[in-house]
Structures
1.
Amino acid sequence: MKTLLRIDASARRTDNDKPSYNSISKSLAQLFCDHWQAQNNLSEFIYRDLGDQVPPAITQDWIAAVFTPEEHQSTEQQRLLALSDCLIDELQRADIILISTPMYNYGMPAALKAWFDQVIRINRTFSFDLKRGDFPLRPILSGKKLVLVYSCGEFGFGEEGIRAGMNHLSPHIKTLSHYLGVEQFYEVRSEYQEFADERHRASIKAASASLTELALKI
C-alpha cells in the first residue's frame, strides 16, 4: 500500500467563475492524482492546501521549543509544536510527495517555505552531529519520491534555459528534499503563462502528458 502526500501552495483556487483565474499548478497536480489513484485505488491520500491554510512562520519561542528535550517541554511549547508534529507525521507516512506550486518572484510562495520550516526539524527529520565534520546534518527519513509540479509566468527556467540562473524555486526544493528523505526527485513545469499564447497552451499540454506518464510508472 502506497501513501501519497499532496501539498498545494498556490493562493489561487480551481473553481473560479473565470477559468483564467484558476491555479495551473493545482490543476496539473489534480491530473497527476487522478491518474495515480486510478492505479493505486487502495492507497492512502493525504492533502494539504497551503493556500487555504497557511502554516505560521516559526518564532523564537518555536525554536526554543524545538531545542528543548521532549520530556522537559512545557504545555505551551507542546502547543507551539503541535502543527509541526502533525505535518511531520504526514510526511513520515508518505511514500510519494506531490508538491504543486506557482513560481512567485522566481522562488517559492511564503506558505510553502513555512511548510518546509515546520517539517525540517532537528531530531525529527534530520540529525546533527559535529563528529561528522563539515557535513554534520543527516536526514533521518529515507526512501521517498517527490514530484514537483510548478507553473511559471515567463519561460526558459530549465537547466539550459535563458532564465536558468533565475530559477530559485526547483533547485531550492530539490536541496530541501534531501531532508524529507527523498531519494528520487521528479520535476514538471508549465511556462509562458503571462504570454497566454500558443506556447503556453503547448507547455501545459506537454506538462500534462509528462504527469500522466509519470503517474503510471511511479
Note: The CA atoms of residues 39 and 216 lie 7 Å apart.
2.
Amino acid sequence: MSTSQPPEDDSFVAVPGLGQVKGFTTSDGVSQFLGIPYGLLKTRWTRPEAITRFECGKHDGTRHGPRCPQPSAADFSQLSVPGFPSSPLVVQDEFKCLHLNIVRPSGCTPASNLPVMVWIHGGGFSIGSNSEIAFDGIPLVKESISLGKPVIYVSINYRLGYLGFFASAKLLVESGGKSVGNYGLWDQRLALEWVQEYIEAFGGNPHAVTIFGESAGAVSVHSHMVAKSPLFHQAIVQSGALGTCSPVTLERLSACQGHDRLAEALGFTENVDLQTMRGTSATEIVEAMKKTFKGRLAAFTLLDDRQMEDGFFPPDTDFLGIQPFCKRIVIGDCENDVTGPPILSSHFSMIANVNRGLLLR
C-alpha cells in the first residue's frame, strides 16, 4: 500500500450504517479520527448499548471526545511527573465518554485490509483516557509504516472508578439476579464489537485484531482472553494479569468499593436507595472516590460474576486458561509501574519495544 499520495478526501470516511466521520491528516502521512462514539449510556450502573447511527449521520472526529469522570492525576502523588508534557484538556461526561480514536496510514481504503491494534489504557480502573498524550498512537503507526508493516491503531475509553466498577446486592435485586458490576469491561467488549463491525471502513482487517494494554489495561486484556467472545486474535499483556488482580466475590467487593462504602463517602446512610445515589452528579461520585482512597492511587477491583446469570466471566473459567480464538500472546512487565517518577518513561519504552517486536514478526 502506498501512503505517499493520499486522496484529497482521505480525512473523510463513510461508515456503513453509522454515517460519515471527518478526521484530519498530519503532514507526515497519518490520519486521525477522534472521539468516535461506540456506546450509549442511558442510566448509571447499567450496561452500554451499541450506537446504531451518528447524530445527524455525521461525526466530527477532529477533536477529542469527553473523558470518563475521574480525579486529576495531580490528586495522586504517585503520578506526579515534573516536566512531563501535558495531555490535552478535555471535558468529562459520564454519558458521552464511550468513544474511541482511530489512527491509520494516509491513503487507506476499505480494501487495505490492515492489521488492527486496540489499546486499553491502565490507571487502576480509576483514571486514564484515550486522549492522553502517551496514547495518541501516531508514533506507533509511523513506526509500523517505516517497518513496512502498516497497522491501524484504535484506543478506547471505558467507565472508571465507582461509575465503572461499582456493584452491590441492591443492584443485583434490581436486575432480577442478572449479573451486575464490571461495567467498564462491558464497555470495552462493546468497543471491540464496534471494531469488528466497522473497522473495515477505515481500512482495517477485523480478522487480524490485536488487543494490548498496560497495568489495569493488561488485566482487562487478560479478562477478554478468558471470556468467550471471539473479538480479537492476538493479545499483548503489559504489566498486569488476573492472577495478580483477581476478581472477588460480591461480598468482598462490597467491603471496598460497594454500596455502603460509596454511600458513606457521599454522606448518605447505608439504607439509601439506588435512585438517590443515581441522582448525585458525576463530580460528587469522583469526590467520593478521592475521599475513600484519601489521596492514594485508587485501584478498583473486578467482580467475580461467574455464578451470576449472564456474567462477563464464563462459569467454567479458572482465570488462567485462555480461549482458543486468541492465537498468539506477548506477556511482559513495565519497570517502575506505579512505583516512582520513571513510570511514564518506562511506559513509552515498553510500548515501543513490545510492539516493534510484534510488528517485525
Note: The radius of gyration is 20 Å.
3.
Amino acid sequence: MQQESPESESTATPQEGPSEKITRRSHRKSRAGCKQCKTRRIKCDEEKPSCANCKRRNVRCNYATSKPPGDSVQANVLSGSEDISLSEIELTYHWTTTTCQSLSMWPSGAAGWRSLMEDVAFHHQHVLHLMFALTALQLSQCRPNRREAYVAKADYHYEKALSKVTPDLAAIDSNNCDAIFLSVQLICFVNWARGPEPGEFLAFGEHGRSDWLVMFRGIRTTLTSYGRHNFAKTLEPAKRSKSRPLPPMEEPCDYMEQLSELRAHVTATCLPSEKDDNAQAIDILQECYFNRYNGVDSELHVSFAWLYRLSDAFLERLQAHDAIALVIYAHFVVLMHEMERFWYLKGWTHHVMSGIFAALTTEHIAWIRWPMARVGWIAP
C-alpha cells in the first residue's frame, strides 16, 4: 500500500551572517515511538494504545517490545537454547490444547498440526514463533481484558519469525523446506487473525497491491521452487492419510444458474485477450462451489484453492481494480462466508464485500447483488 510522505519537522531559522552556524531547535527525541512513525521518520506522541498520527491515518498502531510481556524464566525449549518467558509456556499449552484444533474441521487434522510443533517447530524457530503469534491472537479475542498484552506478544513473535524465515527462503533445501512451507501458511493465518485492516481486501488493496495475496501466493512459489515430493513432513503425510470429506452442505440458491449467467456476461463484454482467462476463473470457481456443497472437500479452507490456481495475469487485473475481475471475486466471497465459523476469519466477508462494492462503478454493481445477498451484506 502507498504510504504518505514523512512530515517535515520544524527547525530553527539561522541568523544571517557568514560566521553563524545553522542550528536545530532542541526538542525531546521520541525513542519509544510506534513502529509506523519510526518507519515514516516522523515524531510520535507515544500515546497508547494508538498515537495521534496513526489515529489520523486510520492504521494499526504498534509499539516495539524488546521481549514479550511475562515473568521471565529460563527454559530451553527453542532450538539453540534461546531463553523464553513464562508467557511462551502459556502459549505452548494453548496451542496444543486449543489453537491447533481451530485449524481443521477434523480431530485428525488438529492432531497433525499439534504434532508439527514437535516434528518441525522445535527445530525451526520461525515456525514456533508463528505458532505463538497465532495463539496469542486467539487469546486476545477470548480474553478482551488482556487484549493489548496478547496483541503485543503476537506482534513480537511475528516480527521474530519474519527475521528468521527470510534467510531460509533464499536457501531452501531438504532440511528446511517443510518448515518454510508451514511458516508461509501460518503467516497467512496470522494476518487473517489480526482482523480486517482498512484498505486490505485479501486479493486486492485499496491502492492496488495486496500484501496478504503476496504471502498467500508464496505458498505456491515455495512448492514449485523445490518440488512437492520433497515436503516429507507436511504434504506427503497429508497425501497418504485418508481424510474424510465434509458432509454435503445446503448450497446457495440457484448458484449454478448465477455462475452460468456470469460466465456468459463476462465472455461477451470483456476484451478478447482476457476472455479465456476470465472464463477459466469462473470455471475453477464453479468447481470450488461443487466440491464445497457436494461433499468432496475435506476442509473448508480448500476453497482458497481458487486464488491459488488463478493466473498471474488475472490477479494483476484484480489488483488493478478491473471491474470484471472484481465481480468474479465477489462470487468467491460467498465461499469465504462459510469459513467465518473459524475465529480467525470473522469479519472478513463483509469487509471484503464492502471493498469490492466501493471499487465498482454503478453499471457493475448489479452483478454483485447475488453474492451480496448470499453473505447478508447491505451497502451503506
Note: The two ends are 25 Å apart (CA to CA).
